[in-house]
Amino acid sequence: MIYLMCLILFSVGLYCILVKRNLIKIIIGIGIVEYAVNLFFVLVGYRVQGRAPILAKDQVIQNMVDPLPQALVLTAIVIGLAVTALIVAIAIKIYEKYGTFDITKIRRLRG
Amino acid sequence: MMNLAALPVTHNLLPFFVVIPLGSAFLVSLLGKKLRGFPDTFSNLTTFSLLSLSLLSLSLIKRFGTVVYRVGGWIPPIGICMVLDSLTGLMLVTINLIAFIVTIYSISYMKRYTAKWKFYTLFLLMLAGMNGVIVTGDMFNLFVFLEIGAISSYALVAFGVEHEELEASFKYTVMGSIASSFILLGIALLYSYTSSLNMADISRTLTQRGGGQVVFFVSVLFLVGFGLKAALVPFHAWLPDAHPSAPAPISAMLSGVLIKALGVYALARIFFNVLGMTPISSSIWMVLGTVSMVIGGLLALGQEDMKRLFAYSSISQIGYVVLGIGMGTTLGILAGLFHLFNHATFKSLLFLNSGSVEYATGTRDLRKMGGLTSKMPVTGYSSLVGSMSISGIPPLSGFWSKLLIILALVQAKHFIFASIAVLVSILTLAYYLKVQRLAFFGELKGSLKGVKEVPLTMKLSMIALSIICIFGGLLLLPGLQKNFLNLATEVLVNGNNYAQVIFRSIK
Amino acid sequence: MNKKTKDTGMTLIVKTITRLTVGLILLYGIYIVTHGHLSPGGGFAGGVIIALSFIHLMLAFGKDLALRKLSEGVASFFENLGAIMFLTIAILGFVGGYFFFNFFFKGKPFNLFSAGIIPLCNIAICLKVGAGLFGVFIALVLLGIDIKKE
């Protein structure tokens, strides 16, 4: 059931990328899609009645959540940050050259 | 410490394919602003050492068979492993050879742009990403290196910040990040089904438990994600904008190696070795390949921009490769891999030619050019060699690989696909003849009277690539073919036995 | 001189609170980095917090004062230094026989000085991420100023 919510979030982000006309809204759509995929990946590692997978000095190893997806999602978040930084810089430069954020007016390459 | 005595020294070769470009990228970024000639010489030294290491690795494979390297000493499937088998060897040689020639070319070409050290940093990062994708044996490591290569290429397409390049780079980045999200979703689903990330371990678990609907959904997700990186037809819309807008050496790298290393190699590795090739996926591959061939070829006929025509032609030729590999038979995979190697050489040659035409005349429009061979002989004749090779004229290398693909199709009784392949080959000849007639032969236009030949390093790289084009057919000689191409084919034909080979090679 | 610093940046209340808390944020970031092998956090999270302390300084006081504390050249230098340090630690693993091998002495678990090369890797990553994020922010701010001038 929770996984269905993740996929609905994914499709909301995809709708945002495909339909919206403003450059910044497309970038926000990319962000939503990445959040949805990361959330799905973390939820894959959930175990019922599990606790946080941190080992302290006086604790017994029992019933922890899966720690591997958490490490992988950390990496994926950093990758998403890098793509967002790059695409925002490109969007600022596009505004400087074309004078608009509207994607229907930025159509010099065609054919 | 006992492991150091047990392993021969050359086993430690594998991590260096990633460490050397990464280290030199950051060293160039640190010291490149202050020392003048440092970025050029250091990058060329780096790519030359990578080329010699990849040739050395071929001899290593012949001595030891498949080499599996455990990173950090952790035993797979707990740790990450790096795998060097013959398919990896073929891709390594292709990528590092083209990278070396392109860095020699860009010594003179990039003088037109400011901040050469930024170019070399991004270029070496992209090379590190591509090498990492080929060498790794772990799914999430594949994703990380895929992203490193892709993000560097997004930045490189927008390198000269003009109107069209920024627009092309924006489109490429948006579509590329959607593809990466699909790939990550596929990896998450695969992890939830098999609870492991190592490629050999996933393959073993899937053969034991059987596939089912999850594997079908995951294979569709991977096909969409990696298909967008490889520019197969429903997902090709970014390529005709992105490849012409990049500087010419980067166009050669993007069209020649990036769509193959990130797209076709990853698809082949996952579908053949990890998920297992079923008849349904085989026919989907062949249909996608054929549609790419036809649509790429038809759209290339009407182009007037030289680099845009070459970009559409790339889509068409990748269709050939996917058609060949998708057949699943031994001859088909051999033909597809040989065409992959050939296409890397002649497409890079053609893009480098268009770069030198742009360097000398300042335009890319075919209608404004004419009769350039009289003023620029090296460019003209190497372009002739490249165009004849890609159209499939004997005895150049392209003829042999296209002949093998058509023979493999006929042998597997796919007669419709074979006739479409022959027709598209004739179409390819048509539009390359158009380029040759409009740009290089014919009479010299008045505005072009003052053009000169390009500098020495650019000439050297173009001559080197045309020599490889001419003698590429020799790879099919029985001695060479047995060592180089047949071994690579066997890895893919082996399919799910990949897991057993890996687990046997772990000492 | 006083009039100039009063004009840029935000109001007096924000500036006073910033003077009190920026050092604490930096210290908290360093704590998260060095205890990365004992509690959640590690290199990336700590690096982000350290970058945030510099960005906080820039938001409250204006671009010039923040650039005086950490200019673009120094940020770029630290970024490259972090990456090269990380690669050097990985290559030094060859001493133990494998790439990236954990060759340092590992003390008793759950102490601060334990777990081999992991704290050193955390410090390298913190340098790279902190300087990198601050550099990205500076680049975007400078790009925006170029546009406003036209």
Q: Can you walk through the features of this model?
A:
The complex is a heterotrimer of chains A (111), B (507) and C (150). Chain A is mainly α. Chain A has a single domain (2-46, 66-98), classed as Helix Hairpins (Orthogonal Bundle), CATH 1.10.287. Chain A is built from 3 helices and no strands. Chain B contains 21 helices and 2 strands. Chain B has helices at residues 2-6, 16-31, 38-64, 86-109, 116-135, 139-157, 163-194, 199-209, 213-230, 239-245, 248-275, 279-301, 306-326, 330-361, 377-391, 397-411, 415-440, 456-471, 478-483, 485-494, 498-505; strands spanning 67-70, 81-84. A two-stranded antiparallel ribbon of chain B has the order 1-2. The longest helix of chain B is centred in the middle third of the chain and has 32 residues, at 163-194. The two termini of chain B are 15 Å apart. The relative contact order of chain B is 0.10. The model of chain B is unreliable at 1-7 (pLDDT under 50). Chain C has one domain. The longest helix of chain C has 32 residues, at 118-149. Chain C starts with a helix and ends with a helix. The model of chain C has no long low-confidence stretch (mean pLDDT 82). Chains A and B meet through helix 1, helix 2 and helix 3 of A and helix 6, helix 7 and helix 10 of B.
